[in-house]
Structures are given as C-alpha cells and as structure tokens.
Design brief:
seven-stranded mixed beta sheet; alpha/beta; 51% helix; two-stranded antiparallel ribbon; single chain
Length: 284
C-alpha cells in the first residue's frame, strides 16, 4: 500500500511519459481550455483561474501556500520547481511572492504550453521572473540549472519524483542546488510496506514508475540525509488524496459526457449545413 506524504525538507525518458500519460491531443485540449478561460475572465484573469488545467496536485495550492509561509519566500527568493509541468505551481508562487522561479521539465510540449500560459497571464505575473528548462535534472550539471544565478532558496516538487529512476542522482543534485538554510517542499507517493509484484507491474506500465518501485519513508529519509537534506515535517495526506481523486474522477466523467454531447451537436449542425448546401445547389 502507499500513502501520499507532504514533506518539507527526472523523470524516465520522455518517450515513456509521452506513451503513458500525455499525447498531442492532451496538450491541445489544455491550450483550448486556457484560451476559453482567458476570454471569459478578460482583464480579471489570475493564476487560480487556470488551476483546473495546470494545478492537478492533490493539495492544489494549499501545500504551496504552506511552503511559501514556511520558507518565508519574498521577492528576493529564488525557487526551483522540479517537474514543473504546464507551470501552474511556478506561476502561483511567483504571483504570491514576486520571487523568481526556474521550472525543470523533461517534456518539451509541456514547456511550450507553460510559456503560452505565461503570456496569457502576463498582466498579473511577470513572465521575466519565470523560466523553464527542458532537461532531465539527473543528467545535467548544476551550472545548467543555475543559469549563472545564485543557489535556490527553495526547491519544490509535486508528484514528479515517482517517475525518476535515479533517486540518488536526484537528491544529490537537490543538495547541491539548495542554498544554506533553504527548504525543500516535496509532495509525493510513499510506500507504507512492500508493494506486491503485480502492483509494481501496473505502476511501471501504466504510471511510468521505473521498475514499479516506490520509496518507503525510511528510504526517503536516508537518501535525503545522505545529501544534507533533513526532514523537518512529514504529513500523511492520504485521506485528502482519496477525496481529491474521486472528485476529479467524477468531474472527468461529467466533462466527458458534455464533450460527447457537444461533439454530437456539432455533427448534427454540420450535417444540416451540408444538407442545406445540397438543397441550395439543387434550387440553383
């Protein structure tokens, strides 16, 4: 069994992630929804308006808000987001604090989406304060990530580490990139006990978890401490996770019905238009 801890304290190859979690149609839907929202909100558009698209973590902004307070982030802070996705957490943190954020994401399509959404929110979030790097953080140098800047004040990572094969290289990099007195906010799955072989196979094939292995709490602590990262707080958020997943599932099923209904209406309208066109040609 697993739990979902929130810890205060990249991924497999992109082809594997693309095959199991995302496809081009997914990215197109994200952008279509973002543009629809932006058109409706107009000048009142803010980062939370995009949460249904770019903040799909179990605690959504709640965990990040706690991390901001815990780390006392401000305009002079520098944050690293590992597995930044479409940039939701990066934009939210920068919007709330004025800090600069560097997002690291292995999938180029997600980075492209992130920059487009940055521009949509440019009236309330300074795009120059947020940058995204397309790379595997376990296979680059610290200078590649720092881009000539100082060490990071905080590192955040949400539901990303599960997909990273080389955990030792990951935590080593985090230890090198985090400045003295800095904080690491991690929201991730944790194994409560040994995961059954059949479950590991499902995790590997369907969720892109390398070898289906999920770290235990002890493994988290050992790997972190080995790289100078000490766990100060550990919170089990399994109950919140279950509630969030069920709510998201129900919304997905409802939205799918609405999408099918809209598609059917479009097909009917198209058929009517074609029929009308044929009739007009016959009348001519």
């Amino acid at each position: 069994s697993t739990s979902s801890p929130s810890i205060m304290a990249q991924q497999p190859n992109s082809k594997q992630l693309d095959a199991h979690l995302y496809d081009d149609a997914h990215f197109q839907r994200m952008l279509h929804r973002a543009v629809d929202i932006a058109l409706k909100k107009g000048a009142d558009l803010t980062p939370p308006d995009f949460f249904s698209i770019d903040m799909l973590h179990y605690l959504q902004e709640e965990g990040l808000t706690d991390a901001i307070k815990y780390g006392e982030l401000g305009s002079k802070s520098r944050v690293l987001d590992i597995g930044s996705g479409a940039g939701g957490p990066a934009r939210y943190v920068s919007w709330k604090t004025g800090c600069s954020v560097t997002g690291v994401e292995i999938q180029q399509n997600l980075v492209n989406v992130a920059y487009i959404m940055n521009r949509l929110l440019s009236t309330c979030v300074d795009p120059s304060r947020i940058q995204f790097l397309t790379c595997d953080i376990t296979k680059v140098s610290t200078s590649d990530v720092l881009q000539g800047g100082p060490l990071f004040t905080m590192i955040v990572s949400q539901l990303c580490m599960l997909h990273i094969s080389d955990k030792d290289a990951l935590f080593s990099m985090c230890g090198q990139l985090l400045g003295a007195g800095g904080h690491f906010y991690l929201e991730e799955y944790c194994a409560l006990d040994n995961v059954a072989a059949d479950a590991e196979k499902i995790l590997e094939q369907d969720v892109s978890v390398p070898h289906g292995h999920v770290l235990t709490r002890g493994e988290f602590a050992t790997k972190m401490e080995h790289n100078g990262l000490i766990i100060e707080q550990w919170e089990d958020i399994t109950d919140q996770t279950v509630s969030f997943v069920w709510a998201r599932c129900e919304k997905y099923l409802k939205d799918r019905k609405e999408r099918r209904r809209a598609k059917l209406n479009q097909s009917v309208d198209s058929s009517r238009a074609s029929s009308s066109s044929v009739q007009d040609e016959e009348l001519e």
